[in-house]
Design goal:
31% of the residues lie in helices and 23% in strands. The protein is built from 14 helices and 20 strands. Strands 2-1-3-4-11-10-9-6-7 form a 9-stranded mixed β-sheet, sandwiched between helices. Strands 14-13-12-15-16 form a 5-stranded parallel β-sheet, with helices on both faces. Strands 17, 18, 19 and 20 form a 4-stranded mixed β-sheet that branches. Helix 6 packs across helix 11.
């Protein structure tokens, strides 16, 4: 069955796939294509509209990403976001320049006023907060365009030529910080593009299973199983596609949370899959000894993961494909296309140059965390796996700041367990999307039992988010934080100070490293 499609044209911004995630959330299928994709190829996909993404460049700068001007002659609606909005103006007779003073630059949450006669803002409040991130300014709006939103600093926050179906917004409607942002995208899809909403996660599941079968054929598959949500869903998806051709390998690198290795083994040994547990703690700790730089940690762990898989594959016999549970926030933060690298994920930017498999399969690569959970439910995975607390592939290595030792990891494991236990005791686990402890590399003076101590500071981190691309810090009740603090300093050696991280993403990332 052919579905209606919107094409998201990628100009290199950090939130590009998040736009696609919002479109899919609205029940419309979409694909992200680079701005360099030939126009004929885009036309052949028969889209009902285009969305131009943000990007880090200035549209007037030499070498800046540009759209094929012929795209504006196709008679299809276009929504330009941030850089995409300025691109519309640049190509259609407007003028974009660098802001001459700080008053024309806007970053962060901005009070914005909307003209709700515009289809993009139909049915929405006339005033709200939008998330701005632009240093350029539309000095001249193209002929035929009207102004449909403004802020105190910027008169042309949103522009549109409704007769041609061209819309541009200087802010980012795709991020959670923009109030009613998803509703604006929905209005573009349904009010402007005429979408019918004919795409579901069930369709994604069936398409993914078919594609895996076609790719693998009669080959054998090795899957990197961590026991987390992503790898568990990937395992279920590939198992349904190729069955006994799949072997799942769980690499116990010694960087797991307390008792987690045994819990993963117990859970997955009940499944009808080939399960191998590779005990590699000593090997990983030796490789990480003395390493303090987070990017080096990630790359070391990424390469060592692959080497362990290769060795296990040789024991199993011929293996053609490696499956990983990579999801799209990993890809974006590791740098994709013209996007900047924020941090390399062990299963993306951390991969070595040479991998001894025919191909790596990443069936969740275009999904966000909540979509992965929805897919898990489609696959009838148990709720305790689908809703499991997220845990990064590099494990506690990136939650232990500075050098890594078994002693420091054991300290962190105990403290993290207490934090998670008290959150569960308070019935708060479903109100937080990710929460954990970080052993900082900072030591400070304390007093315990009338004696001076000089021990580590532990940081607690908790965020709420729907997509893990943006996140807000969780307002944990003081009494819960107090119980956590008292228990940790009394029960865990070498910690004498607890701090709570109250930074949202952006500007921070969810993890510390």
């Amino acid at each position: 069955m052919a579905h209606q499609m919107v094409i998201v044209l990628d100009f290199g911004g950090q939130y590009n796939q998040l736009i696609a995630r919002r479109v899919r959330e609205c029940g419309v299928y979409c694909e992200v294509k680079p701005y360099t994709a030939p126009l004929e190829d885009l036309k052949a996909m028969n889209p009902i509209g285009f969305i131009f993404t943000g990007g880090p460049n200035s549209v007037y700068a030499p070498g800046a990403p540009q759209a094929d001007p012929e795209i504006f002659k196709l008679g299809m609606p276009v929504l330009g976001i941030c850089y995409g909005c300025q691109l519309l103006a640049h190509h259609l007779g407007g003028r974009v320049t660098a802001a001459v003073d700080d008053s024309a630059r806007e970053y962060g949450k901005t009070e914005t006023f909307f003209d709700t006669d515009c289809k993009l803002f139909k049915g929405l409040p006339a005033q709200g907060v939008s998330w701005m991130s632009h240093g350029d300014y539309m000095e001249k709006v193209p002929e035929g365009f009207r102004l449909y939103a403004h802020s105190a600093a910027c008169p042309n926050v949103a522009i549109a030529d409704e007769a041609r179906g061209f819309y541009g917004v200087q802010f980012h409607p795709e991020v959670n910080h923009t109030e009613h942002g998803t509703d604006m995208i929905r209005n573009f899809l349904y009010e402007v593009c005429g979408a019918s909403g004919d795409w579901t996660m069930g369709d994604y599941k069936e398409t993914a299973i078919r594609q895996i079968r076609e790719k693998v054929g009669g080959g054998r598959v090795l899957l990197a199983l961590s026991g987390g949500v992503d790898s568990s869903v990937a395992a279920a998806l590939v198992a349904e596609a190729v069955g006994s051709q799949l072997t799942c390998v769980f690499v116990d690198h010694g960087l797991m949370r307390l008792n987690e290795g045994d819990e993963v083994e117990n859970a997955f040994r009940k499944w009808n899959i080939n399960f191998v547990r590779a005990n590699a703690e000593a090997r990983f700790l030796a490789k990480l000894s003395g390493v303090t730089e987070p990017e080096r940690k990630r790359k070391i762990i990424g390469e060592e993961f692959i080497r362990v898989f290769e060795e296990e594959a040789k024991k199993i016999g011929r293996v053609d494909y490696l499956v990983q549970g990579t999801i799209y926030p990993d890809v974006i933060e590791s740098g994709a296309g013209d996007a900047a690298v924020i941090k390399s994920h062990h299963n993306v930017g951390g991969l070595p140059d040479y991998v001894d498999f025919k191909e790596i399969i990443e069936p969740l690569r275009l999904l966000f965390k909540d979509e992965v959970r929805a897919l898990g439910r489609e696959l009838e995975l148990p709720d305790y796996l689908v809703m499991r607390q997220p845990f990064p592939g590099p494990g506690l290595a990136i939650r232990c700041i500075g050098d890594i030792t078994k002693e420091k990891l054991d300290t962190l494991r105990q403290a993290d367990y207490i934090f998670r236990e008290e959150v569960a005791n308070a019935g708060l686990e479903r109100s937080m999307d990710q929460y954990f402890a970080v052993l900082t590399n900072m030591r400070s003076v304390g007093v315990m039992g009338d004696s001076r101590t000089y021990d580590y500071t532990l940081a607690l981190r908790s965020v709420t988010t729907s997509d893990f691309m943006t996140a807000d810090w969780t307002r944990i009740p003081y009494e819960v934080l107090d119980r956590v603090s008292v228990r940790i300093v009394n029960e865990v050696p070498h910690i004498n100070r607890i701090v709570y991280d109250i930074t949202s993403k952006p500007p921070a990332t969810i993890e510390w490293e």
